[in-house]
Amino acid sequence: MKEILRYNLFDNSIQAYLYVLGTVLLMLFIKRLISKYLAGQLLGIITNRKNAPRKEAFLNLVIKPIENFLITFITITALDRLDFPEAFNFKIFHITTEHIANAIGVTIVVVVFIRLCIRIIEFIAQILEEKASITDDKGENQLIVFFKDFFKVLLLIIGFLLILRLAFNKDISNLLTSLSIVGAAIALATKESLENLIASFIIFFDKPFVMGDLVKVQNFTGIIEKIGLRSTRIRTESKTYISVPNKQMVDSIVDNFTLRTERKVELQLEIDLATSSAQIKKFIGLLKQVMEDKENLSSWLVYLMDTGKTAHTVLVEYYTAMPQNVADFIALREEINLNIIELLEDNQIDLSAKNTDVVVTRK
């Protein structure tokens, strides 16, 4: 039996092959247990497992990548204990097949490890998004999505450098120096893209607006649907979908309607010059009473603003408190306009013949 175990096959003993096979089979049997344990420990580090209603979903996200990494790492490590058969060791373009096999093995381990790290980032991001959804601050969700994508790109770059260093024995210090020079040249060539990237950081940390806000920028009004690394996507009032570079969102004047504390309406009533002062005084008094009875108004102002050769101008200005949906605002404005028309009819007051329109300024 010992002679059979010591028998050499392709420069390795049968005993060595059995050790490798046994190690791999053992890992196949226990990989699930180890993966669940490691995933559970990771969940415990990031959050309190008792307060994680989606614990199983989080675990399922990382268990499979952990299993793949464990079995790949153990298999490659076990195979490394074997001597590469000389019968299969020949050169291809001055590179031996042994070096090619080692490079492939290292590359597989690095790729599987990077994929595991990306899954862990997604795992952490899901937990943070769940916590952020409890609060009303939409900016937290934006930061989570932004940094999730940022760290994914960073991991891919690190993985590429690890493959060059470990699989192909390249000196990455010189490569990093070259990349810094190339990066500087690219930065100059892509100046606008770099400015948009910096502007995205300003938006995320300064938070002049967040996803879901109604804003007006460069004569476009719409709802912020996405804030990316380069541009901000807005769904306009006409339901079109536009992209505005982040640099313009930072440099331009952005009117954030969602952050308004009040909504203002201004009316200028051009009254006919034939109207007596007593009629105007009575009309203004009645109109003030109407405004006083409106519970939805936070403040208001009614007075004779001007008089001249063509008309007497009565200014009506009022504010409604936010938040208030558009339908309620329109209904209130219509109600006040009808009240004004009724007062004009009841008091037999005519608008100026030169300008019979009611001038309305809505802000």
Write a concise keyword list for the protein shown above.
3 domains; alpha+beta; disordered C terminus; 363 residues; four-stranded antiparallel beta sheet
Q: Mean of the pLDDT scores?
A: 79
The secondary-structure element order is HEEHHEEHHHHEEEEHEEHEEHE
How many extended strands?
Answer: 13
Q: Report the span from N to C terminus.
A: 95 Å
Short description:
The chain is of the alpha+beta class. 57% of the residues lie in helices and 19% in strands.
Provide structural commentary.
- With 363 residues, the protein is α+β, with helices and mostly antiparallel strands.
- The chain has three domains: 2-188; 202-258, SH3 type barrels (Roll), CATH 2.30.30.60; 260-362, Alpha-Beta Plaits (2-Layer Sandwich).
- Helices cover 57% and strands 19% of the residues.
- The protein is built from ten helices and 13 strands.
- Strands 8-7-6-5-9 form a five-stranded antiparallel beta sheet.
- β11 (297-307) and β12 form a beta hairpin.
- α2 packs antiparallel against α3 (55-80) and α6 (172-189) crosses α7 (191-206).
Topology, please?
Elements: H1 2-6, E1 8-9, E2 12-13, H2 14-46, H3 55-80, E3 91-92, E4 95-96, H4 97-132, H5 138-167, H6 172-189, H7 191-206, E5 214-217, E6 220-227, E7 231-236, E8 241-245, H8 246-251, E9 255-256, E10 262-271, H9 277-293, E11 297-307, E12 312-321, H10 326-346, E13 359-362
Antiparallel strand pairs: 1-2, 3-4, 5-6, 5-9, 6-7, 7-8, 10-12, 10-13, 11-12
